[in-house]
C-alpha cells in the first residue's frame, strides 16, 4: 500500500505515521521546522557539509497471482545542507529493473525548503529537474536535481521501486555524511525465507520479529524493524580497499520459497556448493575441458621442457602474449574459449580458463580460482554474486602459484591489483573446492638513487634512478602503458612543483622478467630556502612526505596497503664551494610492534658530500584497526624526520 504525506503551506503538521496492510504502524516524522532551517552546523559533527536528518524505508510484497509476487520498496529521505560542499547531496538517483511492465521506479513528493524572512518557503521539483536513462539492457536510471538549494536548505524526497524479483536490496545505515535517524521495516510473506546479515560498526537495533496478518495478500507476514540513531559519517581515509566492506549495511540471502507450508525451492548455499554449481555450468566446466583448439600450438612449446615451473612459465607467457583482455570480468565464458582463442580476445573467464586447460594439458596440477575483485568487495556470505572474476593456480613444489593472463604485465604470484582481495575459491578437477589465499607474499621494492648538487642560489641539479620490483613494477607498467612519456613527465612536474625533468627514460617496460627502471635528469628550484648566508633543505628533496594521511583519532576498519613494500633511498648531495655543513639531522630508527614495519634514516658527511641512506619497510599488506594509533604515530615521526632541514652556512 502506498502512503502519502500531506503538507500545508506553513507546514504545521507532521508527516503522517503510515499503517501497512499487515497492521504495523511506523512512528511519524516531524515536519520541517524553522529551527531546523536555522541550524547552521550539525551538532554531532561540526565538520559535516550535510546530514541525513531522517531516512525511512519499507519493503513489502504484493501478490499478483499464483507464485507471482512484486516486491515494493518505498524510501523517504530528508537532508540538511550546511555548506556549499554539500550541495551534491541535494541530488538523487535510483536504478531499477525495467525488463517488463512490473518493473517500475519513480520519485515523488520532492521539494526544497528555505527560510525566507522568517517564513518557510517550499520549492517543489519541476519536470526539468528529472532525468531518465538506460545504462544497460532492461535497466532504467532516474535522477533528480533539486531546485533552489542553498546553504541552510533542507531537501526531501520519496521514491518507490517495484520489481518482480524477490532478492532484497541492501539497506545502508551509514553514509559519508552523518545520519541522525534511520529506520528500515521489512514485511516478508511466510512463503519466503531469508537470512539477514548486518556488517559494519554501527550499533543497529533489531526489534523482535512479529507475525502479522496481511489483509491485502490474505497471508501472514514476518515483520522486522532495524533502526539506528546518531550514526557517524564514514570517513574514507587513505588505504581503504573498498569502503562498502565496512559501511554498516543490512543484506538478505534468499534461502527458500514455500508453497502451502512445503519447501517449493531451496536456495540454501554454502561456499562449496556455489563453487560446485559454477563448475558444473557449461559456461565454466565444459569450456575448461576443451583442448583440441590449441594442441598444435602448445605441444611444440612444452615438448623440450622438463620442469613444472618451465612449463608453467612458457604456457603463461604464451597466453598472455596471444590474448587481449576485453575488460570484462566474470567467471563464465561469453563466446567460449575456442572463439576467444581464434580472435585472440576474450573476457577474464575465457582467458584464464583457457590458461588452466593448457596447464592441465601439460600435466600440471592447475585449477581455476574464483575471486571477488576489490571493486566487488569482500563477500560476507555465499551467493552467486559473491564472486565476479576467475584466475588460475598451479600447485608445485609444495606451493600454490597464482596466475592471471588478462594483464600483459602480471607475473606468477604478481596478480593485477583487482584480484588481491583476501581469499578465493580454488576448484579442483573433481568439482570439490578449497580456500585459496590471494594475499601477496612477495615484497614489492622501490629503490631510489639520486646524485645531485646544490648551488649557492638553492637550485638543485642532478640525476635520479628508480628501480621498481614486483607489484611496484606492475603498477607503473600499467600506468606507462596507457600514458605517453610526455604526459607522464608533465604530470610528474605538476605534482613535484618546481622540478624540471630532462632525458627521461624507461627501461624494461615490456620485459616483466626484469625490474622496471626509470632514469632522468632534473633541476629543482623549490626544495630549499636561502636565507642570508644559509641554505636549508630536506635531504630527501622532493621525495619527502609532507602530510600524514592518517588523520582520524581512531579507525574502526583495517588499513590496506595492498601488498608488503620496501622503499630504499640512497642520495649523494654535493654542497657548493665556500659552504660548510652547520647542521645534519640525527639518525633515527623506529619500529612498530608485531613486525608491522620500520623506518631507518641516517645521514653523514664525506668531504663536500652529504650521504643519505633511508629505508621504509611495511611488512604486512593489511594492518588491523587496533594498531591504527601505532601506525599513525609511526608515520608522524617518519614525516617529521624526513622534513628536518640540513643547514649549510657560507664560510
TrEMBL record:
Coiled-coil spans in chain: none
Residues making up the signal peptide according to the UniProt record: 1-19
Residue span, Transglutaminase-like domain: 302-383
UniProt KW Signal keyword: yes
Protein keywords: Signal
Domain DUF3857: 72-234
Protein name: DUF3857 domain-containing protein
Source superkingdom: Bacteria
UniProt key word Signal: yes
SUPFAM superfamilies: Cysteine proteinases
Xref: Pfam families: DUF3857, Transglut_core
Amino acid at each position: 500500500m502506498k502512503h502519502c504525506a500531506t503538507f500545508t503551506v506553513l507546514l504545521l503538521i507532521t508527516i503522517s505515521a503510515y499503517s501497512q496492510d499487515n497492521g504495523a504502524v511506523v512512528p511519524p516524522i516531524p515536519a520541517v521546522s524553522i529551527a531546523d532551517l536555522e541550524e547552521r552546523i550539525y551538532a554531532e559533527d561540526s565538520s559535516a557539509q550535510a546530514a541525513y536528518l531522517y531516512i525511512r524505508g519499507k519493503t513489502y510484497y504484493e501478490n499478483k497471482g499464483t507464485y507471482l509476487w512484486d516486491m515494493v520498496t518505498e524510501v523517504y529521505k530528508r537532508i540538511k545542507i550546511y555548506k556549499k560542499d554539500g550541495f551534491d547531496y541535494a541530488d538523487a538517483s535510483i536504478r531499477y529493473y525495467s525488463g517488463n511492465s512490473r518493473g517500475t521506479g519513480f520519485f515523488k513528493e520532492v521539494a526544497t525548503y528555505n527560510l525566507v524572512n522568517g517564513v518557510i518557503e517550499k520549492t517543489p521539483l519541476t519536470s526539468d529537474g528529472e532525468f531518465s536513462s538506460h545504462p544497460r539492457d532492461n535497466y532504467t536510471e532516474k535522477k533528480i536535481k533539486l531546485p533552489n538549494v542553498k546553504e541552510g536548505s533542507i531537501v526531501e524526497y520519496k521514491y518507490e521501486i517495484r520489481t518482480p524479483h524477490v532478492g532484497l536490496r541492501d539497506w545502508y545505515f551509514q553514509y559519508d555524511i552523518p545520519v541522525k535517524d534511520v529506520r528500515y521495516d521489512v514485511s516478508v510473506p511466510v512463503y519466503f525465507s531469508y537470512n539477514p546479515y548486518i556488517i559494519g560498526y554501527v550499533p543497529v537495533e533489531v526489534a523482535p520479529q512479529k507475525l502479522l496478518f496481511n489483509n491485502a495478500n490474505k497471508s501472514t507476514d514476518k515483520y522486522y524493524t532495524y533502526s539506528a540513531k546518531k550514526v557517524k559519517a564514514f570517513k574514507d581515509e587513505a588505504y581503504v580497499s573498498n569502503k562498502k566492506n565496512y559501511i554498516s549495511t543490512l543484506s538478505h540471502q534468499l534461502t527458500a520459497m514455500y508453497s502451502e507450508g512445503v519447501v517449493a525451492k531451496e536456495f540454501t548455499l554454502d561456499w562449496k556448493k556455489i563453487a560446485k554449481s559454477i563448475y558444473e555450468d557449461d559456461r565454466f566446466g565444459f569450456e575448461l575441458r576443451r583442448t583440441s583448439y590449441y594442441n598444435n600450438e602448445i605441444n611444440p612449446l612444452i615438448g623440450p621442457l622438463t620442469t613444472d615451473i618451465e612449463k608453467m612459465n612458457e604456457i603463461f607467457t604464451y597466453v598472455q602474449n596471444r590474448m587481449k583482455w576485453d575488460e570484462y570480468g566474470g567467471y563464465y565464458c561469453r563466446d567460449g574459449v575456442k572463439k576467444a582463442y581464434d580472435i585472440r580476445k576474450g573476457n577474464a573467464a575465457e582467458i584464464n580458463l583457457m590458461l588452466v586447460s593448457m596447464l592441465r594439458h601439460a600435466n600440471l596440477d592447475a585449477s581455476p580460482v574464483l575471486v571477488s575483485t576489490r571493486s566487488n568487495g569482500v563477500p560476507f556470505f555465499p551467493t552467486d554474486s559473491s564472486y565476479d572474476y576467475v584466475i588460475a593456480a598451479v600447485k608445485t613444489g609444495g606451493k600454490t602459484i597464482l596466475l592471471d593472463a588478462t594483464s600483459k604485465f602480471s607475473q606468477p604470484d604478481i596478480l593485477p591489483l583487482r584480484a588481491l582481495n583476501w581469499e578465493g575459491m580454488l576448484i579442483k578437477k573433481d568439482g570439490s573446492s578449497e580456500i585459496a589465499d590471494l594475499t601477496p607474499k612477495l615484497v614489492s621494492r622501490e629503490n631510489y638513487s639520486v646524485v645531485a648538487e646544490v648551488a649557492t642560489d638553492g637550485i638543485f641539479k642532478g640525476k635520479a634512478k628508480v628501480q621498481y620490483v614486483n607489484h611496484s613494477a606492475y603498477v607503473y607498467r600499467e600506468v606507462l602503458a596507457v600514458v605517453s612519456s610526455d604526459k607522464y613527465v608533465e604530470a610528474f612536474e605538476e605534482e613535484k612543483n618546481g622540478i624540471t625533468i630532462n632525458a627521461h627514460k624507461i627501461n624494461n617496460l615490456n620485459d616483466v622478467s626484469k625490474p622496471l627502471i626509470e632514469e632522468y635528469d632534473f633541476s629543482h628550484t623549490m626544495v630549499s630556502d636561502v636565507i642570508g648566508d644559509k641554505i636549508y633543505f630536506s635531504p630527501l628533496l622532493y621525495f619527502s612526505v609532507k602530510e600524514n594521511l592518517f588523520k582520524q583519532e581512531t579507525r574502526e576498519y583495517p588499513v590496506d596497503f595492498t601488498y608488503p613494500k620496501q622503499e630504499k633511498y640512497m642520495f649523494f648531495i654535493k654542497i657548493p664551494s665556500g659552504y660548510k655543513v652547520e647542521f645534519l639531522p640525527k639518525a633515527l630508527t623506529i619500529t612498530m610492534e608485531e613486525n608491522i614495519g620500520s623506518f631507518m634514516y641516517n645521514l653523514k658527511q664525506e668531504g663536500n658530500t652529504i650521504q643519505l641512506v633511508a629505508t621504509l619497510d611495511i611488512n604486512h599488506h593489511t594492518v588491523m584497526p587496533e594498531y591504527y594509533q601505532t601506525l599513525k604515530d609511526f608515520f608522524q615521526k617518519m614525516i617529521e624526520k624526513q622534513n628536518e632541514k640540513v643547514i649549510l652556512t657560507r664560510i
